[in-house]
Amino acid sequence: MSIFNFSAGPAMLPRVVLEQAQAELLDWHGSGMSVMEMSHRGGEFQQIIDEAIADLRELMAIPDNYQVLFMQGGGQGQFSAVPLNLIGRTGRADYVNTGHWSTLAVKEAARYGEAREVCSSAGDAFHGIPDRSGWELDPRAAYVHYTPNETVNGVEFQDIPDVGAVPLVADMSSNILSREVDVSRFGLIYASAQKNIGPSGVTVVIVRDDLLDHALPITPITLQYRKYADAGSLFNTPSTYGIYLAGLVFKWLKQQGGVAGIEQLNKAKADLLYRYLDDCGGFYFAPVEASARSRMNVVFRLRDESLNADFLAQSKAAGLLQLKGHKVVGGMRASIYNPMPLAGVEALVAFMRDFAQRRG
Ligand SMILES: *Cc1c(COP(=O)(O)O)cnc(C)c1O
């Protein structure tokens, strides 16, 4: 039986990447050491991190006036690091609230300055994205923060919002590298690795040079972008093994036709699942508005919620793992990041169809 893992994060990794890591576990490229046992200041690890950064730059076409940093602390670490590094420019920041993670981001930022919600879809149970024309942006904000893909709610922006001259900051934790984006539209992009990049413990930050030097005096040194930029991400000991695995994933992604190639596959997977949800006759339904549906995290519910436990037990027995929705939303969620093959979504739809026939 094939196993398909729909975890929202830490999420599945490409099998070939895990096999390569397994083959290299004890002795990396004849060095006599595991990557886990190498000095982060040695030549071997320098090669690993240099290649990872170069491959990420190539995959996302990152312009030269942006730094690529590997930090720690995850997505939530950046909820603090972003205001601690940027809000000092003007003392205020604008936040777009489209779900669980943006709600936490603005709450954390308010500890360091005047962080304001410019719009919120909370009243709509985070089932859509507030129309851009209704956002009340402050031209003096240090930045505008938004969450391109709300992992818990299954809501994704289909376009980059236009916020004028104010730097745009994006929490791309759950959709980085899943679709093509024009990096030059952003002041800063960050992503915890465990959704679409690699194992947990690595946080990728892509930051424009002019935003490196506005840290508040209280900013912990381990959260200062300038320190990481100057040290080539080796300010202190980074997650060396995590960076190595991320690098293997980047190489794998290049073999899949890069971001443009994987985007086509991601579209096909999401279309297949949403089409079934819309056409299944109501046994299941997708609560998110069609225009805001995430390609990465497909949230759905059973009309008869008393069947939830049965659905989860039987899907697990069929090799379809971790379909339970986040506890704040309930229902089901199929996370179908880059490594999920089309066959995984086909197997899920076949199971759902069969379950509906038996229990409908
Ligand atoms: C998972 C996630 C986070 C939190 O990441 P941690 O690494 O657990 O702090 C933040 N934002 C988004 C969009 C996420 O998907």
UniProtKB/TrEMBL annotation:
Binding, pyridoxal 5'-phosphate: 101, 151, 171, 194, 236-237
Residue ranges of every copy of the Aminotransferase class V domain listed in the record: 3-348
Stored Gene3D superfamilies: Aspartate Aminotransferase, domain 1, Type I PLP-dependent aspartate aminotransferase-like (Major domain)
Cofactor: pyridoxal 5'-phosphate
Record EC number: 2.6.1.52
Gene Ontology annotations of biological process type: L-serine biosynthetic process; pyridoxine biosynthetic process
Catalytic function, reaction form: 4-(phosphooxy)-L-threonine + 2-oxoglutarate = (R)-3-hydroxy-2-oxo-4-phosphooxybutanoate + L-glutamate; O-phospho-L-serine + 2-oxoglutarate = 3-phosphooxypyruvate + L-glutamate
Keyword tags: Amino-acid biosynthesis, Aminotransferase, Cytoplasm, Pyridoxal phosphate, Pyridoxine biosynthesis, Serine biosynthesis, Transferase
Location(s) in or outside the cell: Cytoplasm
Single GO molecular function: O-phospho-L-serine:2-oxoglutarate aminotransferase activity
InterPro entries: Aminotrans_V_dom (IPR000192), Aminotrans_V_PyrdxlP_BS (IPR020578), Pser_aminoTfrase (IPR022278), PyrdxlP-dep_Trfase (IPR015424), PyrdxlP-dep_Trfase_major (IPR015421), PyrdxlP-dep_Trfase_small (IPR015422)
Subunit details: Homodimer.
Family stated for the protein in its record: Belongs to the class-V pyridoxal-phosphate-dependent aminotransferase family. SerC subfamily.
Protein name: Phosphoserine aminotransferase
